[in-house]
Amino acid sequence: MSKQATTGADSGSRLRDTAERQHAGELEALARVDDRARPARWRLSPWAVVTYLMGGKLKDGTVITPKYVGNQRLIEIAVATLATDRALLLLGVPGTAKSWVSEHLAAAISGDSTLMVQGTAGTPEEAIRYGWNYALLLAKGPSREALVSSPVMRGMTEGKIVRVEELTRVPSDVQDTLITILSEKTLPVPELNEEVRAVKGFNIIATANDRDKGVNELSSALKRRFNTVVLPVPETMEEEVGIVQRRVAQMGRALDLPGETPAVEEIRRVVTVFRELREGKTADGKSKLKQPSSTLSTAEAISVITNGIALATHFGDGKLKAGDVASGMIGAIVKDPVLDRVVMQEYLETVVKERDGWKDLYRACKEVL
């Protein structure tokens, strides 16, 4: 296989580049002006890491775009945690930017966001500890040459941040392999009668949610090894609309969608529907609503709008309309074909149908539903 096939010769052709590549200019600008104390092997000081996440204007005029929109104190607590020997657990319902924040934290601190373990129901212990090249193992027996390092082992030896995504998806017995690593900062390799000791700069950022099905509760022993920061859903309508608008524009550029940037009014309607059903009441607080089983996160609103832009671009006049977002919206809301369908039908008849200027959305949703 050629080098181009494995690594990609042109970063512009990649569907999604790493955070450290996408924002290399901002990270370099921050490093130039950053004269504050940095923990061992950190590329930036804690102050600069927070500035990279939250955005701002540097003294040389460079504008740092915000990567996270929300409470700055939460990001400060997260960064301060990583500057100690405590691991960080980002907790929240799906779609609250946990993975997004963890990726950008790793990019700013270590300059490398690729050391990641993706948690699933089938994640094996080897994904966290280490594995073996079985051809070499059979030929030569246990040896350093036959050992295959996991992202966690590499992070320990290189002094970098390691990301463990969806920790609560991982089986409980596999989760607990992290206990020794987090408490003793060591990874025993009994087959070689050795152990790997972490160097300064190593730490773990885990993400987790306790909302979805298939979640494995963390043991008390493992919870004690983490400092937990809960990332909430956007507090206000304006905040959520701003997040969706910004991320849709970024994704449109990344996917080369030539359609028009959607009007704020269309984004606001989607966000309004999601917020009302998520909270179980209308925006004015006058009517209670049944809630669907779906989470209706900000990330899902971004997906609905992006999918709508693709429909408008390739099968319409390029301008986002109600018919372009209706199918994505129904798909995001109606996860249970019986119960959620009833919730959506009631919402359409009692809320959407009665709202001024929403008749087009009502008709489009009824056609899909």
- How far apart, in Å, are the first and last alpha carbons? 47 Å
Question: Count of DSSP helices?
Answer: 17
Identify the CATH class of the largest domain. Alpha Beta
Biggest sheet, spatial arrangement of strands: 4-7-10-3-11
Fill in the CATH topology of the largest domain: Rossmann fold
Q: What is the percent of helical residues?
A: 40-55%
Rg, alpha carbons: 23 Å
Helix and strand content put the structural class at alpha/beta
* E-strand count: 11
The CATH architecture term of the largest domain is 3-Layer(aba) Sandwich
Shape: globular
Unreliable spans: 1-6
Oligomer: single chain
Q: Summarize the helix and strand pattern as letters.
A: HHHHEEHEHEEHEHEHHEEEHEHHHHHH
